[in-house]
Amino acid sequence: MIEVQQVDQTAVFNGALTRATITRAFDKKYRKLVDNKRIVIDLAKVSQIDTAGLAWILLLIELAASKACHMSLVNLPDDLLKLAKLSAVDTLLPIENT
Predict the structure, then answer these.
(1) Within 13 Å, how many C-alpha atoms sit on residue 30's CB side?
(2) What is the 8-class DSSP label of residue 95?
(3) What is the pTM of this model?
(4) Measured on CA atoms in the order 54, 55, 60, 64, is the torsion positive or negative?
(5) CATH 3.30.750.24 fits 2-92, yes or no
(6) Running DSSP on this structure, what letter comes out for residue 73?
């Protein structure tokens, strides 16, 4: 299960961001995160991520760019960084150092 708590311009993801948790309802609800001018996605509490989770984050990045939303990612789990490097998409991630 994945939960998202949004406070102002920060969305904190908590749980597994995987093929099993990225449902249509989840996707529809959280695509709206990029409707703002700026959003920070905090992934510190993500316990598991797979290629579907990475693909969804990349989709969110693309949507943010199309809507002129400045999106940044913070507290990325090591598994996500490794997966992104293996997939050769690590340079596409808007990582913000905190």
Answers:
(1) 25
(2) B
(3) 0.92
(4) positive
(5) yes
(6) E
Place of tokens 């991630």: 93
Domain borders along the chain are: 2-92
Q: How many CA atoms lie within 13 A of 80 on its CB side?
A: 27
Contact 9, 40 (CB under 8 A): yes
Cα gap 38→7, rounded to integer Å: 12
Buried b (16+ CB within 10 A) or exposed e, 62-86: ebbeeeebebbbbbbbeebeebbee
Question: pLDDT tens-digit profile of 35-59?
Answer: 989 999 999 999 999 999 999 999 9
